[in-house]
Amino acid sequence: MSLEGSKVDLGVLMNAIRESMPAVWAKIGDDMEGDPNAARPVKPVKKPRVRRKNQPSISSNRLPPITLCMTAWFMSCFIGTLPIESTLRVWDVIFYEGSKTLFRIALAIFKLGENEVRSVTDPMEMFSVIQAMPRKLLDANALMEACFKRRNGFGHISQDTIDTQREERRVKVQTEHQRAATYAGAVDSANATEAEGEVRRKGTIFGRRRLGRSAEVS
């Protein structure tokens, strides 16, 4: 799985957390205004402004900062994240049921650590809490039970649901990338036009007169 693919999957996971565990989402994604897939507003392209300083670039991903420590969950399929016994059990299920297992297990990890997440008051502490949660899951049976239990479990998440949300996320990311590229091209064009205008102004009779007066004074 590529880094771009893991970002798509993390967006799908954040949607699932927002829907199934609102209290957890309030802690890890409260600054995202409720929707991790919502695109950032893009400045209009018709009248681009010249980019003079290091302005923040347009982002196509609105993911909570906490996902930075969760990228390895999907890229390595929990290798090095869960204890080896639990990892082997997860891989057995992945081979049998497919990639939807990644999301089920990730949701189960958050469900088992929900009380700990809700008790965090310092946003910086949240990173260490999320990183430590999977490492504590030494009991593979407890992890599987939390994942597949009928009540408050995640066995109902189907592969079709995951694939549909993945495709929606990919389309949004691609659209945002295209809009960002269009905006960047318009800004470059505006910069080139302004530079060309400066050159033309220096070559006019008024520009030569100013240069002549400067030479006389010196």
Automatic annotation (TrEMBL):
The organism's place on the tree of life at top rank: Eukaryota
Biased composition range(s): Basic residues: 43-54
- Region Disordered, annotated ranges: 35-58
What are the GO MF terms of this UniProt record?
Answer: GTPase activator activity; small GTPase binding
Pfam families cross-referenced by the UniProt entry? RabGAP-TBC
Q: Which residues form the Rab-GAP TBC domain?
A: 1-98
InterPro entries attached to this UniProt entry: Rab-GAP-TBC_dom, Rab-GAP_TBC_sf, Rab_GAP_TBC_domain
Quote the protein name from its UniProt record: GTPase-activating protein gyp3
> Can you name the source organism?
Colletotrichum nymphaeae SA-01
